[in-house]
Amino acid sequence: MMDKVEGLVIRTNNYGETHKIVTMMTREKGKIGVMARGAKKPKSRMASVSQPFIHGMYLIQSGSGLGSMSQGEMVSSLRSIREDIVKTAYASYIAELTDKLIEEKQPDPFLFEQLLQTMVWINEGKDPNILTMMYELKLFKKAGFAPVVDHCLNCGSIEGPYSFSMAEGGLLCYRCKSIDPGAYGLPDPLPKLLRVFLHMDVKRLGQITMKEENKKLLRQLMDEYYDRYGGYFIKSKKFLNQLDLFSE
Prior knowledge:
By secondary structure, the protein is α+β, with helices and mostly antiparallel strands. It is built from 7 helices and 8 strands, in the order βββββααααβββααα. The strands form 2 sheets. A 5-stranded mixed β-barrel has the order 1-2-3-5-4. Strands 7-6-8 form a 3-stranded antiparallel sheet, with no helix packed on it. Helix 3 (109-124) runs antiparallel to helix 4 and helix 4 (128-143) packs parallel to helix 6 (212-229).
């Protein structure tokens, strides 16, 4: 059965001397893997459309197992990502995290839009650290382990100030902070930003400015939270850390 899908390539693996297995997030079918025959040949019509971070329209042969790519037409190369080591680092991390946390063949058009728009904004030069945190929280929600950020997770209060508890998995109000003496105290704008990052469609992103110390604290919280609840080792995060991007 032939299907036309809109997809973003998130991973490729060489298969034999001339073929690639391409993993992509698609609007219509969720995450899928397809064989791109001959894609390693420089003159192959599959070569350009089977690279990481390519956004395209693809004609695929679907089956119960691994499908095959029959045709591909590039919508956007997102070339700036591949030409900039910082953008490449963030995009690689986002792609790998998506690959690890998302089950195959579970369509989610909203999450596809969030991934695609995040990559487009990174390509266009918007702050990749903020974009990454926005997308991470949506991915954590999809995977079932997002922190509670809309209210105090113990009493339900919507009145701050708040602390962030790793042990409990989200916000504690000032009355309930004693539940976790090790909870991180949050400066005033951060609880609101966490809610915005989790719920706001990234397409609506304007200019979000954050103090560097707040950005660094939020990044620390996100990393520690994922290490506690995420479960999968993310190889590309090491690359980001080596560039000191997550700690700027």
